[in-house]
């Protein structure tokens, strides 16, 4: 079944919240995530003809985002720039809500993960993508995805336990 261009564009627009959520998980920075989504959507719109009808549009877009992020990281490394989202912890303690503090701790812990682990966490745990679909997006076997996810969960648990211990020590 072939879709016309307007339908594909509407489907891409409907995916924007999921793309943005994945972008934030991968980049650890709101502005970088927005830029990444913009680059991915621009590439998708320019190369709509490369998408094969009958395949998952979301997987195709997530793969474009993953590749765009790899390009960006490599470019930054060549320019000697370091990713340092200092503003992520800027407002800790200014909001008395415990949920806010926990959310920041989780965001910081996810940000400390190795990039491969951040990608699987972003796709599976944050976006809710199935293991099979996430493995296709990342172009890895499902077994590799599950082992990376298990290691990422262990790392997150350790990082969050350390953060909790540090918080209790400060009180």
UniProtKB/TrEMBL annotation:
Signal peptide: none annotated. Keywords: Sigma factor, Transcription, Transcription regulation. InterPro entries: RNA_pol_sigma-70-like, RNA_pol_sigma-70_dom, RNA_pol_sigma70_r2, RNA_pol_sigma70_r4_t2, RNA_pol_sigma_r2, RNA_pol_sigma_r3/r4-like, WH-like_DNA-bd_sf. GO terms for biological process: DNA-templated transcription initiation. It comes from the Bacteria. One of its GO terms (molecular function) is DNA binding. The keyword Transcription regulation applies. Residues 104-156 form the RNA polymerase sigma factor 70 region 4 type domain. Residues 13-79 form the RNA polymerase sigma-70 region domain. NCBIfam families: sigma70-ECF (TIGR02937). Belongs to the sigma-70 factor family. ECF subfamily. This is Sigma-70 family RNA polymerase sigma factor. It comes from Undibacterium oligocarboniphilum.
